[in-house]
Write a structure and sequence with these properties.
279 residues; Pseudouridine synthase; Archaeosine Trna-guanine Transglycosylase, Chain: A, domain 4; elongated
């Protein structure tokens, strides 16, 4: 299910709504959105919940608004101010474009203290709420594209495409630090996960059973390998099937448009790692 999450709800709230609509607890999401954020949330249902890692690893595109001149302890509008405000009036559009361009590419990013990252076996946000906040370890992320769309000082609107695990809040924070004025995120909308787009999503308050799609929908980025009837029987029992000589990495095993399994090519065989087809 492709859902357009509204502001004010957690990703878990969206999952709970889907569970009530579908009458099942077997619903999960891929890629958490903060409560203040809106946009695309992919919900997986039933046996398809095991596909989460293949969806979550895709690049994500966001439309974001950052406010210059003030940093917060959460790196967004929900947090408490850090230090005093600074005046960003002297920053030109050219300066901002140059600063944003410096974030494109692979880099180390410090996740926000108020995040789900683990520090010493505990969630970072749990430590931060108890006044024991420490910076989570840096992670390697990639910013594929970053475009300034509008500047109305102190606010700037930008679109960014990033690798999985990248915090847009942290990008806003780091931009403010780089410019010497502080900054925090005030709005965030996820527009895409891989080839999946929010334009094709259903508003959460309009969610019905009709919103359930084929599991194949979320795996369009994987090469598809068609299997015959004997291959289907083998795959449904978790057995490997022969691979073509040029097959590499993860592939989707399908039959007539139905997703049977995700398999990995190893030594001339396609070994199922997630099986959806019933024996």
């Amino acid at each position: 299910m492709l859902v357009d999450k509204p502001a004010g709800l957690t990703s878990h709230d969206a999952v709970q709504r889907a569970r009530r609509v579908l009458g099942t607890t077997a619903v999960g999401h891929t890629g958490t959105l903060d409560p203040f954020a809106t946009g695309l949330l992919v919900l997986l249902v039933g046996r398809a919940t095991r596909l989460a890692r293949f969806v979550g690893s895709e690049a994500k595109t966001y439309l974001a608004t950052a406010r210059l001149g003030l940093a917060t302890d959460t790196d967004d509008l929900t947090g408490a101010p850090i230090g005093g405000p600074a005046d960003p009036a002297g920053l030109t559009e050219e300066m901002l474009r140059d600063a944003l361009a410096g974030f494109v590419g692979q880099q180390c990013q410090r996740p926000p203290r108020y995040s789900a990252k683990h520090v010493g076996g505990q969630r970072s946000y749990q430590l931060a709420r108890r006044g024991q906040g420490v910076d989570p370890p840096d992670v390697t992320v990639t910013v594929h594209r970053l475009e300034l769309l509008r500047l109305a000082t102190p606010d700037l609107v930008f679109r960014v495409s990033v690798s999985a695990g990248t915090y847009i809040r942290a990008l806003a924070r780091d931009l403010g630090e780089r410019l010497g004025v502080g900054a925090h995120l005030t709005a965030l909308r996820r527009e895409a996960i891989g080839a999946l787009r929010v334009e094709d999503a259903v508003p959460l308050d309009a969610l019905t059973r009709d919103a359930v799609r084929s599991a194949w929908t979320v795996l369009g980025h994987l090469p598809a390998v068609e299997v015959d009837a004997p291959g289907r029987r083998a795959v449904s029992h978790g057995r490997a099937v022969p691979a073509a000589a040029d097959t590499r990495g993860d592939v989707a095993l399908v039959q007539g448009g139905e997703l049977l399994a995700v398999a990995r090519a190893e030594h001339g065989w396609l070994r199922p790692s997630v099986v959806l087809a019933m024996p």
